[in-house]
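Hello,

Our lab assistant flagged a job as stuck in the queue for most of the afternoon. It eventually completed. Since we weren't sure the result was trustworthy after the delay, we are filing this so someone can double-check. Below is the sequence as submitted and the structure that was eventually returned. Let us know if re-running is recommended.
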Amino acid sequence: MSAPAYFLFTDIETTGLDEKNDKILEVAWIITDSEFCAVSPPRSFVVKQDESYPAVLASAKPVVLEMHSNNGLFAEVEFATHNLDDVWIQMQEDLLDLPEGSEVQIAGRSVHFDEKFLRANDFGPLFDELLSHRVYDVRSVRTYLDLRGIHYDDIQGHNHRALDDVLGDIEFARHLQAITVY
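-- returned structure --
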């Protein structure tokens, strides 16, 4: 009998694309079972920054500054109370609540980007100890379908807020599961 399968659908929002210099602004996740039903509560943390709010705004790439000003994330960053240690602790607790021996794959639309940023911010032990090396990259599947003329523009998660993107990815995974492709 194989170990229970779970997915850690996660997404982060950042000030740019460089994990060494840019900052994580928001982290969200939901753990699902293999049927893409939530087994953990939705988690979403706007991250308190180590530097001043004006410095964070100044360090953001122009496109990111416009995007996160328009979607309200930067306004929330100014008053954030959770640091990345809080996020790490909660994610670890959620993963440890799963049955012993479970296989947990990281999942989402930007899996490698998110993992790269989280590892650069000391999440490596969490990934190495509690997550499988396998990933479920819904963006790759979506790109494949787009190239074949199958579009899913009605799937939510286009406002660049972490929890909305996670919910959209889970919705897309459920949709894929519901169809049969030959």
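-- support follow-up --
The delay was a queue issue, not a problem with the job. The result is valid. The beta strands are 5-14, 24-33, 43-46, 103-108, 135-137. Helices lie at 53-59, 62-70, 73-77, 84-96, 111-130, 138-147, 162-178.
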